[in-house]
Each structure stands twice: as structure tokens, then as C-alpha cells.
Amino acid sequence: MESGTVVEYIDQQRIICAVVLEQKDERLRLLNENNREINQKAARLSHVSRTGLKLTQGRDQLVESLKTIGQRRQALSAHIDIREIWEAVHSLEEWIDLDTMTSFCFSGEPDNDQESAVIRAFFENRIYFKFSHDWFYPHPEEVVENNIARQEAEQRRQRLVEEGGQWVRAVLNNGSVPPDVDPEVVELLKAYYLYGKESARQTTARAILTRAGVDSAESIFPVMVRAGHWQAHENLDLYRYEIPMEFPGSVLGNAAELEGAADQIPEYAHRRDLTDLDIITIDGQGTMDYDDALSVQEAGKNLRIGVHISDVAARVEKGGVIDQEIISRGTSIYMPDLKIPMLPAALAEDVCSLLEGQRRPAISTFFTVTPHGELVDYEIVPSVIRVSRQMSYFETDAVAQSDDRIRALHAAAQAFKKRRLENGAVQILLPELYLRVCSADDIRVRILDRESPGRLLVAEMMIMANWVMARFLAEKQMPAIFRAQNHPRGRLYSGTDEGTLFQNWMQRRMLSRVILGTRADHHSGLGLDAYTTATSPIRKYFDLVSQRQLRACLGLEQGYSDSEIEEILQLLQPPLTHARLVQNRRMRFWILKYLEGMIGSKAEAIVLDRRRDGYTILLKDYLMEARLPSSAGVELKPQDLARVTFQHVDAARDKLTVYLG
Predict the structure, then answer these.
(1) Contact assessment for residue 293 and residue 387, using Cβ atoms and an 8 Å cutoff
(2) What is the pLDDT of residues 603-649, one digit of tens each?
């Protein structure tokens, strides 16, 4: 190739005009329009002109000439209507050479500038033709349609990046929010903050942040708060795990119909009328959904105890609109600042709730026990009940010694628990952390005693009722959601010993995983030969399934088969896992939020175990684990008490730093 020949090559998706200075074998030394000398293979050239420039005119003049040629050719390419050409030739379905294509685009004898203009135009627009050096092949119609859609999507993406970048920068710098921001920008950034690399359009979201001059996705949260799309203490896990917070209109409509028929008792003819029986509920302060109640009667030297469970299955049709909704939820979710019910309020707090003075359908489990907690007999019946009094745990504790009913129930609970422990039950005596969020600036934290009379008697009566119902289902050979548990991996204290806080905390870690199945088996942790849960059908779908199986045994409906229950277990696994995560993480968030006001304060902790770079500790007043870095000259061991100081707390970022002090 002669020196002075004008050529073009592609560099970083641009066509560059150059002149040949020298050729050695197949390599060329070029001077390009950007006044740079480069080496290039002859085979990599996109166009070779039949004319050239005189190298004697000087470098600066050569560069100016190359720029002029490139601009002229680019201007010519803008007049080429590629779509019009494609419409004329795409039916030919054959490759078209450069000379022919140039003749389609320009009249007369093709020249160098026109050939280059054709190559430039088809290089920049790949929608209609496949481009290979100096040959062109028209795409089929469906390919063109797809290419146009991709181009439009990319153009929209670029617009979102530009608009989104300006919006983010404005919000961060000025606190102002452009009113016309595309909602898609907001959704893109939200998704990226929630899901990170798992976000479907994370590349576009990152491009928006880059355009805004932002280095980290952490900046998205304050942008959303300032723009009013999120609250300062937004529970992002609700979005992250797609927790439904509202009920569909069809579900609310069905619930309203049931509410209108609240006075009608389903299957009344098959129910035992227990409305004259003295029945009470015992729940936490502020409870609105009452699904279990208690009664107690003397039976000679023994006690006849009744556990009465709201018959939710009598109201909620299996497979109906409401049932399909609540199986997708799996459980009610209780957080310090929010409650998300499994059932609509019209059912959970009214139609299905055992409200004082209201007649309600129930499944009543009666069991006769000796003063030593031994089961004498039991009976399970569909019933109609009327609660005579609703009590709180506080009220129950206050009359534990003066109220005959409470005293008798408490004594029976203690005796039953003693028998369970003698049968190998694992006693985990951990206090309960009560956390109430009145506002972000008014968070109340206190430790509650799980072994108070009210809490103990309710817990043990529910355990006994679930055990009796499990035995009943097993005897009837009815499949259900049974719970079993193997022996713990070790025991840190004897069954009747209460153990220290450290021992109880570590013992819980050593419990075996609970096994769910359709047939009854031994539950080591509870010291029982069979166990299910059926006492909270308003709040837990597992319990509603067990209740339906009880109703099947009582002749009130058709029960589930083994395979149907196995399918339900699979369906419920994701929502129950997510609900547990949301509850635990929200609890931790508000504890940390409370501790943000405790910077510099001290707290007592128990050393749980030694780590390579420090220790794992338990903050006694908050029942929360934390990391404690090693301190020079101080050696701690498990069970040691340590006094720590809060150094840094950031609830939004889940950060807690303490040091020995």
C-alpha cells in the first residue's frame, strides 16, 4: 500500500480517518486525524481510498486534511436512509457488496467519500443489515423488530440514567425533588438498594448513581427518605421478602360477608352448648385476636380442664378465597412497631375472636388431670362457648393466690411441667424481652419473666392441649402436621435444675431441629410422645390445618390426605422463613435504635465463647449477642461477666460496637 493513501479503521466503536506513512509487510504506520501515530494491520482497515494525500505538505496540514475528509464523509452518511434501502432489498435474502450498496445510496459513479459514508452509516446502524467489512446482508423482519425494540429500550435506559442521575444529585445536594422524575427511576434505585447484585436491572441503577457522582448504593436510602418514598425507619425487609401488608378486595369482601353472619353458629346441631361454662382468656396487654380460652372444674380430687380454641375452620372455607390468601402468608407477623395479621381484622378481631360475652363456635379439648399432673382421660368436642372474662397476664399474676380458678390452673401447670421434665424435657428458662415502640424517640425496653403464674399456666395448658390433640389424631390414624424432636446434642444442666442464664442460652443452641411430618413421633424437647400445634388457628396456618384434621375426626368435614399435607408443608416453608427473618431483624433494629441513645453507657454482659479476634457476648439487659474485641492484658472465658461500654451503634446499618470498660 502506497504511502499517502487515505484509510479508515475502527477504534472504540468509532471510525477513524488516517493516512499511511509507511508499510512493512502487513503492518502499516499511520497518522490519524487525532494527530497520533499508530501501528495497524492492513486487514483491520474498514476502508481504503483510491486517492491519497501528499506527505510533503507537513504533519499539521495532513491532520487538518484528515479531519476535513472525516467530517465530509460523516455528513454524507447522515443522508443515507437505511430503512428505505432495507425495505427495497430485504426480500432478496443475499449478501450485497459495497459497490452495489453505494449505488443504492448515491447516484452516479461511486467515489471514496460515498463508499466511506455507506460503511459509516451501516456501522452505526445495525438494526436492518448484518455488516461484515464491505458486505451487507438484510436482516429478516422479526430480527429487525427485535433490534428496534432493543434500540428503543437502550434509548430509554440512557434517558433514565441521565434523568435519574440529575435527580439523585439534586436530592442529595439541595434536598429538592424534581417533580417530573420518571417513577421507573425510583423503582430501579429501590430494587438495587434492596437486592443489590440480585436486582434485575442493577447495571442501570449503578449507571444512575455514577451519573450522579455517587460511589455507594448506601446513598440510595437517604435519597428515598428525602424524596418521601421511604420513611426514616422504613422496614425494608417487608419489601425485600415481599410480605403482603394489605388484603385483596375479594378477601376483604368475603370477610365482610362472614362478619355480617357472625351471630350464626356453623354446624350448631353437632355442637355441645357450653355457654353456661365459666370460661376466661389470658393474653398480653393490647391483644385483639383471642383464639384460646380456659375453663377449670373440680372432678373429685382431680381437675377437669378445658382448652377452648376458636373454630376458625368453621368460618374459613378450605380452598376458598380467604384460604388461598392466608396460606400464602402462613402466619401473623408481630413486630414492635407493626402487626401484620394472617386473617383480615374482621375475622381475626371479631368473627373468629373469642370476645367476652359473644357466642362463638369452638373446638373444646377437656382433660382430667390428677394433682400430680397425670392425664386420666380426655374428650374433644365441637362446641359453642361464651367467654365470661378476658384477663391480661398482669391481672392474672395479681390474683394468682386469691382466685380459685387461677390457683388451680397454676398448680396443674406446675405439676404437668414437672412430669414433662421427669420424662426428659429440656427446660429452657430464658426471660422475654418486651419492646414497645411509641415513636422513634420513645422506645421502651424491659425484661419479662416467662415463669410468672399467668404466662406459665397458659404455656403449659396449651402444651397439654396440643399433646392431647396430637394423641387423638394419632389414635384416629389421621395425618396432621406433627412435630418431633431428637434428643439434644448435650445437656448443660439436669432436667429439674433451672440453670444459669449462660447455661440456658447455650443449651438452646444444642437443641436438635424440630422435624415436621404427617405422623406422630417423640418430641424430646417437650418430653412428650406426640405433639402438634392447633391452639392458634387465627395466627398460624399450621394450626388451622391441624384444626381441620380434628374436625374431620369429629365428622365436620373431609380431612387432608398425607400428600396434601406434604404439599402444604412445602408451600408454607418460604413465607414462614421470611416471616421469622422479618420479625427477628425488626426486633434487632429497634433494640439497636434504642441503644443509639446509649453511646458511652455501660452494660453487663456474659461471655459466651472465644473467637480468633475476640469474644461473643450476651448483653443481659437486651438478650442480644454482640462481638467484643480482645483487650491487651485481659483474658476472658465462657460464663465470665464483663462490663462493656457502647462505642458505636447504627441501627440502619446493623452496626454495634462495644469495648471492655
Answers:
(1) yes
(2) 999 999 999 889 999 999 999 999 999 987 889 999 999 999 999 99
